[in-house]
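Quick one, tokens below:
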């Protein structure tokens, strides 16, 4: 393990008030759990990747909603 990563892990464990061994165990368990989910559902790894576009998504949703709220009489003739 690189020294910088070890120091960061040690500091994080201290901040959380848990032994380094517990932090490492939890991190490995989490990584294995995520890997297992991703292998069963490959599309899951893309969840949340467009979060930074949430305002744009809301804007697009409003445009769509506004468009569908309008009735075009010629369509119904």
């Amino acid at each position: 393990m690189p020294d910088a990563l070890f120091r960061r892990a040690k500091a994080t464990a201290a901040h959380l008030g848990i032994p380094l061994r517990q932090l490492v165990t939890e991190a490995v368990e989490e990584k294995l759990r995520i890997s297992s989910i991703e292998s069963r559902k490959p599309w899951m790894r893309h969840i949340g990747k467009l979060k930074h576009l949430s305002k744009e998504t809301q804007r697009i949703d409003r445009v769509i909603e506004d468009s569908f709220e309008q009735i075009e009489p010629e369509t119904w003739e």
